[in-house]
Amino acid sequence: MIILVINCGSSSIKYQLLDMKSDEVYDLLAKGLVEKIGLPEGGITHRPTGKDKVEKTLPIPDHKVGMKLVLDALVDPSHGVLKSFDDIEAVGHRIVQGADFFSGSALVNDDVLKKIEICCDFAPLHNPAHLLGIHAVSEVLPDVPQVVTFDTAFHQTMPDYAYMYALPYEYYTKYRVRRYGAHGTSHEYVSRKGAEFAGLDINNSKIITCHIGNGSSVTAVLNGKCIDTSMGFTPLEGMIMGTRCGNVDCNVIPYIMKKENLTPDQMTDIMNKKSGFLGLSGISSDARDLDAAANAGDPKAKLVLKKLSYDIIKLIGQYVAAMNGVDLIVFTAGIGENNSRMRRRVCENFSYLGLKLDYEANMVTGKTTMLSTPDSAVKVALIPTDEELVIARDTMHIVSTIEE
Q1: Which one, of 231, 151, 238, lies nearest residue 186 by Cα?
Q2: N or C end of the chain: smaller count of CB under 10 Å?
Q3: Which of 381, 210, 196, 213 is nearest to 285 (CA)?
Q4: Kindly report the CA angle at 139 between 88 and 393, in degrees rounded to 5?
Q5: Annotation marks residue 110 as catalytic
C-alpha cells in the first residue's frame, strides 16, 4: 500500500511516501521537509530514493503553499517518484490535539474533522495547519482515504493528579480544561526504540524522552507508559520554544494585556507566535540562526540557548523525582538530534546521578547513537524520531480494515 504521510508542524511540513508491505517491511520512496514556513526565506528539501536530492529556496507564506510544493515534488517529471497522484492509496496525517475525543488513530470523516476543529482552541498553531493539510489533499485526491494519528493519544495514560489543573473543577467538566500534552507519536516511538537500543525491557524501565525542536516537550515514560509530559492544555505550556513562551506566571498575561490594551486573541498571538526564541532574542525562531548569532557574540542569542538547556534540565530533574530514578534519557527531533552543545550542557548537570557523557560520541548528528559511556549509571541516547512510520502503520491497518 502506497501511503503519503504528512506531518505539519508549526513552521514545517515533513513528509514521507512509503510502500507499506507490513509493519516491519516497507520501502521508502521519497521523503522531504518544507521548513521556515512564515519566515522571509523558506525552502523545500526533497529526497527521492535512488535520485539526487533537490533543494529549493523560496518564500513559503503558509501551509497551503507548502502542501502544494510537496505534492508537485512527488509527481515532478525529473525528480518525482509517482506517475500521477492516482498511485497514492492512502494518506496519513499527524494531528497534535485530539483532546479526550480520541484514544487512537481514526479515519477522516465529517465528524472527525469537526472534532479536530474544536481542538483548534487547544492547539492554535497546529490543528489549523493540520486541517489545511487534510483539505489540500482532499482537493487533489478526493477519493483517497485519509487517516489521522493524534499526538495526545500516548499521553492518555497520565494519572489525574498529573493532568488536572488546580482550577475550579467545573472548567474541566464544562470546557475540557486539563493537560493533554503533544508530540506523543514521537515520544512513544523513541522511548520504545531507545529501550530496544539500550537493551532495556520497556515494560520495566524509567525513560525520559526529550523531543526538542521548534516545538519542544519532555516526557516521563514509566514501564512504557506516559505518566507526565511538559506540554499542557495546549502546546504552549512547558519550556521555551521557537515562537512559544512556555511557562510564565499566569498573572503576567492580564498585566501585559492591561498595559498594552490587548485583546485575548492578540495576547494569544503574542504568546504563541511572537515569543520564545524569536521574542527573547529578537533575531529568529530558528535555533540554527541563534547558534550562528551566539557564535558571533550576540548576548540575547546566548541567553536563549542557555535558557533552552536550563528548561530541559529542570524538566528532566522533575521526572527523575517523579519516577524515583531514570534508566535512559533520549534526545530527538531537530534540535535534539543535531545540537551537540545543548545535549552536553544538559547531561553535564546530571553527574550526580552517575551519568557520564561520551564527548566524542556526542558530536554525532541525526544518527542513532549511544551518547553515554559504557560505565555510565544512566544511559543517554540519540534516537532519530520517525513519527511518519508510526502514522503509516496506523494508516495501513485502518484502511486495510475498510477494504476488507
Answers
A1: 151
A2: C
A3: 213
A4: 35
A5: no
Q: Which residues contact 95 (CB under 8 A, 6 or more apart)?
A: 116, 126, 127, 130, 148, 149, 150, 151
User: Catalytic residue among 111, 151, 298, 358, which?
Assistant: 151
Task: Give the pLDDT confidence of 314-369 residue by residue, as tens digits.
Answer: 999 999 999 999 999 999 999 999 999 999 999 999 999 999 999 999 999 999 99
Torsion over CA: 368, 346, 376, 228 (sign): negative
Per the CB < 8 A criterion, the answer to whether 149 and 95 are in contact is: yes
- DSSP secondary structure letters along 252-266: HHHHHHHHHT--HHH
pLDDT of residue 260: 98
Per-residue cell: 260: 498594552
CA 262/CA 88 separation, integer angstroms = 46
DSSP H or E segment with residue 33: strand 26-35
Enumerate residues 6+ apart whose C-beta is below 8 A from 360. none
Measured in Å, how far apart are the chain's first and last C-alpha atoms?
A: 14
